[in-house]
Amino acid sequence: MQDKLNLMIPGPTPVPENVLSSMSKHPIGHRSGDFQEIVKKTTEQLKWLHQTTADVLTITGSGTAAMEAGIINTLSKGDQVICGDNGKFGERWVKVAKAYGLEVKLVKADWGQPLDPNEFKRLLKEDRDGKIKAVILTHSETSTGVINDLKTINNEVKSNSKAITIADCVTSLGACNIPMDEWGIDVIASGSQKGYMIPPGLSFVAMSKRAWEANEQSNLPKFYLDLKQYLKTSNKNSNPFTPAINLYFALEASLTMMQKEGLNNIFARHARHQKATQEGIKAMGLNLFTKESFGSPAITAVEPENIDAETIRKLIKNDFDILLAGGQDHLKGKIFRIGHLGFVNDRDIISVISALESTLDKIGELKIPIGRGISKTISILNNE
Q1: Considering only CA atoms, which of 134, 128, 63, 124 is closest in space to residue 102?
Q2: C-alpha–C-alpha distance, residues 73 and 136, integer Å
Q3: List of residues 6+ apart from 162 with CB closer than 8 A
Q4: What whole-number distance in Å separates Cα of residue 253 and Cα of residue 170?
Q5: What angle do CA 265, 266, 270 make, to 5 degrees?
Q6: What is the pLDDT confidence band of residue 1, given thresholds at 50, 70 and 90?
């Protein structure tokens, strides 16, 4: 059926009707008093979401822009950094760091496995001269469905060095608890098309006091992503460049929805959907690519045995108008990924598990009686 596609990918995520409606308004002047009121309100809402009193700055750009901004505004050419690499996005930050002339030390893990906090501890303790200036990592590794132990890794950074922590929280912010001030994280980057429940186009950088102190020493080239310009104008409820005005309308609407639901309820909803998805998949005889103990609340990666994952994705899209994400790089055709992030409800979880079970039955790959997977999912949704 035309225009019925249901996004069950890690981004872009579904957008609420009232958020879409807010975007249909005529643009207003980005130097007007009306727009300044929106900037003022959304800035306070963003601080609420990040659980911080620090500066949270909005950039018109993707989550990669936010991460690049966090890196180039706190570091200098030749600085040593530790990059965590256990997936596609960990690899990306290594590439960004090297592009700016940073000296990268790696903490690696196989795709589907979490980063080991002890490896960060070891490298930091070996750095007796204090040359390591930052630890850069992805919290929720979208490519594999792994969530890394950001809290413990950040504790190791703070206990063993004067380095700052720069965290990609693009698919974790708004899905699980990340209390920036309580944990002492220095830089958090995120993007609008994930837990924020709005279309792509805005990104956010939260900067601690220690991050701004590092900024004073930074000499990497920057212009559009110069966060000093964003801070200066943010203090006046404005923006240094022409922002995506209608996305600000959406941001205000979505953050207001999130505040009404409440942080703890948002986190509980994502955890519940994660468990219902994982248990339903296991009950129908499929393998999880990532163990439940370190699975992301935003996305579940599935590794079907002896079945092309792309075939499953294609059939589910054609038969049920549900879009799942595929594997990336060497995992293409080996895994598919189910997003349960942002504006997702019980109906969406029931639909995707039912569609998956029906598809396996259709191609003769369901090895257990039909209905076992969806029964498990419904049981969890009804009792959690």
Answers
A1: 134
A2: 13
A3: 130
A4: 19
A5: 115
A6: low
* Distance between CA atoms of residues 168 and 85, nearest Å: 12
In 10 A of CB 181, how many CB atoms?
A: 14
For residue 148, what are its two tokens? 């890394």
Distance CA 302, CA 355 (A): 14
Greatest CA span in the chain, whole angstroms? 63
Residue 48, number of CB atoms within 10 A of its CB: 14
Rounded Cα–Cα distance for residues 1 and 276 (Å): 27
Look at residue 144 and give its three-state secondary structure. coil
Q: What is the mean pLDDT of residues 228-234?
A: 98
Task: Extract the tokens encoding 349.
Answer: 């979880």
Domains of the chain as residue ranges with CATH? 17-260 (3.40.640.10), 263-383 (3.90.1150.10)
How many helices and strands in the chain, by DSSP H and E? 14, 14
Is it true that the peptide bond before 12 is cis, omega within 30 degrees of 0?
yes
Give the rounded distance of the alpha carbon of 83 from its chain centre: 17
Determine the 3-state secondary structure of 302 from DSSP: strand
Which tens digits make up the pLDDT trace of 204-215?
999 999 999 999
* SS3 assignment, position 135: strand
- Alpha-carbon distance of 330 to 45, in angstroms, equals 39
Which SS3 state, helix, strand or coil, does residue 331 take? helix
Flag whether the pTM goes above 0.85: yes
pLDDT for 319 equals 96
CB atoms within 10 A of CB 223: 8
Q: Which residues pair with 300 in a beta bridge?
A: 338
Question: Which pLDDT does position 3 carry in this prediction?
Answer: 76
What type of residue is 369? Answer: P
Q: Hey, what's the torsion of the CAs at 278, 328, 58, 19, to 10 degrees?
A: -50
pLDDT, tens digit, 9 for 90 and up, residues 46-77: 999 999 999 999 999 999 999 999 999 999 99
User: Which candidate, 356, 358, 302, places its Cα nearest to that of 333?
Assistant: 302
Q: Which residue has the tokens 């279309």?
A: 199
